[in-house]
Every structure is written in structure tokens, then in C-alpha cells.
Amino acid sequence: MPLDQIDLEEPQAKDSRLDEMRMSFGDHLEDLRRRLVLALLGPLVTSAVGLIYGREIVGWLVRPLAQVLQYFGLPPQTYNLAVTTGFSVYMKVGLIVGLIIASPWVCYQLWKFIESGLYEHERHAAILVAPFSSLMSVLGVLFMYYVLLPMTLAFLIFFTTGFPPPDAQGPPQGGLIGWVLSAYGSPRTPVTTLTDAPPNLDPAPGSTTLFQTLTTDPPSPIEGQAWIKQPEGQLRIHISGQTITYVPLIGQSMLAPMIEIGQYISFVTMLMLGVVISFQLPVVMMILGWSRLIAPETFSKYRRYCIFVCFVLGALLTPADPISMFALALPLWGLFELGLVVMRIAYRKPQEPTAASEG
Hints:
Elements: H1 3-8, H2 11-23, H3 25-52, H4 54-71, H5 85-114, H6 120-160, H7 175-182, E1 212-214, E2 226-229, E3 234-239, E4 242-248, H8 261-278, H9 281-291, H10 296-301, H11 303-316, H12 322-346, H13 355-358
Parallel strand pairs: 1-2
Antiparallel strand pairs: 2-3, 3-4
């Protein structure tokens, strides 16, 4: 509540308001208990909905990663390094989605509790803040999923696969490593179980045994058919009515991306949280302008420093790569300019004392 509103109230109005608050203190506690119970019931219901569609939501979150991996000729899948990882990821995603869906309900219960202690103009301002904040949160999630996440993943996977393959061909020649390894005898060779050539190399009628290099998958592959899919360089075999894709047959880099599903979900969650918080910048600036804590002219005067802060936040809230940093910093700059416009609209200049009030 702004301080100037307290000064404008008559002493009798202040006393009656204080008496009303004292008299209804027990009712406020009862209302607080009821609102807390209702606020907790919302996430319980929505979390159940999130768990029902938990697998579909995990697939939706992993889709950008799979598309990037497939583009760079890598198997479009993640890995599970612990027995309980699949279940823990499912529970984590379901509960987080439930909390996100229930957040408007929780905010509504909080609003209903504090509504009785606000003035009429404060109620109107709060009604405008809630939908504006919700809209910016939705825009933040969409920006993260469709813009920032693909750009970040593409840069990181491209950089990771850019390392040259390790050169381990042939025995070590001289040097300390050659002297050390020679003490262990002759180098070992991979064990092969096929010592003789197959008696018949001719394919059986109705079957395909020779690998074909195709740019598109066969429309109706037969059982046991295998082909090399280009330009991905992947070996694909049709078995039991489904096509199985094996690792690419191209030269691998020194670093082979084997992305663990739990680590990836944590990465996406933290990235989403940072982006959603960043997209609340216009909301915060509108509140500052409405409460007259900071004048819009102050932000305009120090615009260059505010833009620098946007780039600093872009570096802190994203992975340590320049692509994602600029991909978030530039929208933050735009959000700052939007917040400046909203702040000028919401800002209420203090009223000048009139002659009648002075008399």
C-alpha cells in the first residue's frame, strides 16, 4: 500500500479500519487455513494429470535433442545409466508439470486472501498484474522450447562432434610409450569367431542380404532387409515388422555424445526456469512504475547499463556458449524496452498540492 494513501485517509477512517482488522483477526486466520488447504489441493490434482501424460511430456522435451542428434548423424536417443533413472525422470517431469498447471490456482487463492486488505485501486492493479505475468510465462516457455533450446543444442552438439577422431592405428613406434607397451608382449588383436567363409554367398529367393546405399527408406521393406541410409550414414535393418537403426557408419569424433536422460531433463528444467524468470522483467517494471518506487526516466537515463545487465543475465542463465547467450540477451533487451513502455503507462505522478489543500 503506497504511503501517500495513508496520509489521505481521515483519522476516523483509520481508526475504524484498525478496529475492523482487530475484530476480524480470528476470521483472517480461518480464511488463511482454508486458502492454504485449497491451494494444496490444486497441485495434487494437476500432478495426477501430469503423471498420466508423463511419458508423452518426456518425449516432447526430448524431441529437440533427437532432431539435433539425427541431423548430425548420431543415434536420436538418450541413455539410462541407473536402474531408477527412468522412473525418477517420469515422476520429476509429472510433478513439475502439475505445479506449473496449478500455479494460477495457487495465485488465485493467495489473491483471495489478501484482497480484503487492499484498497480499490490496488485491487484493480493486482488484477492487471496476474494475467500479464501469466502471459509472459507462457511466452517464456514457448521461446525456450522453439528458439533457445534448439539453438543451444545445435551449437553444443556441433562443437562436441568437431573434435578429430583419436589416432590409434598401428603399434606405437619408439618413445617411452613404445618401450612400456613392449614389456607386455605383442599387441592383441580383436577376437573373431568366423574363421571360414560362408559356404553360400548367393541370397536366398525372396530375401535381401546385400547392403544397399539408399537416400530414402524402402517403402515396403521385407524381413531381414538391410541398407545404409545416406546422408546419415546409418545401418538400418528391418526385423519383426520394424526398422532398427544402428550407430552411424561414419568416422566418429574423439567425443561421442552419450546424453543421459536425467541430466538432460535437469538441463531443460533449469533453462526453462531461467527463461521464465527473465520474461517477468516487464511485470516487475510495471509494478515499480505503479508503486512509484522508480521513475521511468531513471531507467531511460541509465539505458546503456540496463542493456549491459541484460547481456550479463543472458550469460548467467544459459550454458557457457555465445549462441545461447545472445539468443537470450537480445530478447531481454526487447523485454526491457517493452517494460519501459508499460512502466510509463502505469506510472502515476504524485499530485501537486492545490491551493484549497494548502489552505
